[in-house]
Amino acid sequence: MPHRIVHMLRAARGGGRRPVMLAIAGDSAAGKTTLTRGLVRCLGADRMTAVCVDDYHRYDRAERAGKPFTALHPDCNHIEIMEQHLQLLSLGEPVLKPVYDHSTGRLVRPELVRPRDFVIVEGLLPLHTAMARACFDITVYLDPPEDLRHSWKIDRDCSRRGYTEQQVRAELTRREPESAAFVRPQRRWADIVVRFAPVPGRPGPLSAELLLRPTIDHPELAPVIAEAARHQRDTALHLRLHRDTDGRPVDALHVHGYVGSDESSIVKNALWDRLADRPGLSAEALGKVGDAGTSDPLAITQLLLLYHLLEARQTGEVRALA
Amino acid sequence: MPHRIVHMLRAARGGGRRPVMLAIAGDSAAGKTTLTRGLVRCLGADRMTAVCVDDYHRYDRAERAGKPFTALHPDCNHIEIMEQHLQLLSLGEPVLKPVYDHSTGRLVRPELVRPRDFVIVEGLLPLHTAMARACFDITVYLDPPEDLRHSWKIDRDCSRRGYTEQQVRAELTRREPESAAFVRPQRRWADIVVRFAPVPGRPGPLSAELLLRPTIDHPELAPVIAEAARHQRDTALHLRLHRDTDGRPVDALHVHGYVGSDESSIVKNALWDRLADRPGLSAEALGKVGDAGTSDPLAITQLLLLYHLLEARQTGEVRALA
């Protein structure tokens, strides 16, 4: 099982010398870039490398037009090269990463990527194979309700990629079988499943539900929740034991978007105080949505991921062999 | 010493599963492509992968114009990525190789290269580092007299790359310090140094001098030479013990271009009979120069390299740790 060799090599390198690897998987327009951007800005670009594995397209847009699958299909991507590059990055080695230009739909000159202390890998299929999964310390799957994701994709592709709403809807329909077959199954491999969604009957900003699987050690959240509860009735945070759709037990952390910013701040500050290596971090970068908006549930999600990144960096621990 | 790890990994893979790796190093227009092309055609493209490491340029032509070095300088190339890709190919893994378009001087879409049974790696700097050298079973350096190489480069660059003779001569002058510093020192790492040159006072086709270093086991040539000598006075082949410019002992094999094709054929047939795995080979592909010319010394050089490729494939032996 070659992926075990990667686990062992990474463990042998020790915590101080190998990068901490975070995967953020999810379908098109699920919010990967928004989540990633705040983490990069908070930790600083000099400590953080962000890689999008959608650059590993095997075909450009013109070539894909004649193929029986969409860009979501593993056969449409250099999966074995993606695996190889993830292994190299996870061992601290640089790679010459391919580059797909979304504005022209063409594959262009590759770029040198040298892993810094932290590497975020986001994209459609970063958790598709056991070898790829073996390269990560922390794995996240973004799982918004499909109707919300569709509206996000229509907004983005119409405003920034020059498509009409009708074209985007047709593409979503065309992609649906491959989303179901290849993208969504990655949810089961995530340490944290993040779902931004409105809460029925509660208007206002989106809330977040975070499924925290016992595959990694999460921070002790009970004291945070207790602290928040001392200050108000309607707390920003709830933690509930939950049985996942596959029957496995998980903690479900509810981060409410409808509470006031004062209440959210108590939770944010408490999580901030638990970060292993705060000096040099930029708290203002967290929770930014688009050019102007902010979201406390997003900020709290990012703080939880920062906690895991900094813990992994400090302890140098590799996740349990799985 | 990481290059020892590559030696060990390659040895552990065994002969049947890892590709046989041949390096052909040499300066611009030294004859690398001519030598390579005949080997690829003889073995067949389905068994042979050819890679040019000059594709690992860090800068395109426009960017190089502002740099204090030429394309020959290691700093002008992704040497660490070249090393990484050579390691991967030598272990049988595919790579996504960068591509430099000589006609436009631009870096373009990379291409997937999957190593077949034999991998020929040619270019300016394939033997520049210990790590790169560790990846090869057989190493060749092409060492024509500089005046001959200059005339080859002028012919090629004027007829096929759109330069004037004056431009090519200026570029040769500009490159000379880096040729001396980085390209020519690779000669000492070659198992075989090939020098195509005219013999003074002997008109006609070029002869070849092949320095055969005892770093690999060469075929027994004495019987071949004896067989040729039985048939004529002016044999196509001479083998002489020789002290190299650095004082190290080598065998110098002289392959004369001025003897008739009948005599050369005796040598070619004798070498052909010694090949480990002849079925499927195409002998007609050997010795081709340009579109129409042929050279028996070139054919004999290619046969010697074929001998080493097929022996390495059959025995699975990795060269001595050096």
Automatic annotation (TrEMBL), chains A, B:
Reaction catalyzed: D-ribulose 5-phosphate + ATP = D-ribulose 1,5-bisphosphate + ADP + H(+)
EC annotation from Swiss-Prot or TrEMBL: 2.7.1.19
Family annotation (InterPro entries): P-loop_NTPase, PRK, PRK/URK
GO MF term list: phosphoribulokinase activity
Keyword Transferase included in the entry's annotation: yes
Keywords: ATP-binding, Calvin cycle, Kinase, Nucleotide-binding, Photosynthesis, Transferase
Pfam families linked: PRK
Pathway(s) the chain acts in: Carbohydrate biosynthesis; Calvin cycle
The Phosphoribulokinase/uridine kinase domain, residue ranges: 22-198
Sequence similarity: Belongs to the phosphoribulokinase family.
Protein name: phosphoribulokinase
